[in-house]
Amino acid sequence: MEYPDIPGCMSDGETINEAIVNGREALRDCLEVFRESGRRLPKPSIEAAQWRQRLPRTLYAKLTRQAQREGVSINSFVTAIIAEAVGSRQGAVSQRVGKRV
User: If the chain, 101 residues long, is cut into consecutive pieces of 10 residues, what is the mean pLDDT of each piece?
Assistant: First the structure.
């Protein structure tokens, strides 16, 4: 997990659940450092958004079961999957661009 508006605040984990837990802990620690040092928190560069998506029942059931196994909400689980996919695509694009240089 990465918090782009808070430089250096990031974390990861072996599982999605662990990454979420570690990310929340990292954010909590970073916010504490801001409070202790008297620094102002940066304003979010991007507002949170809401997105609605219709899914086939079978896919929704699979996502729900997996989220339960990971011990997180379906929203957290799907958000983590999307973030992971976007990150891997960015890495793949960076590698392709790097090979052309």
Answer: 84 82 90 92 81 93 95 90 82 57 42
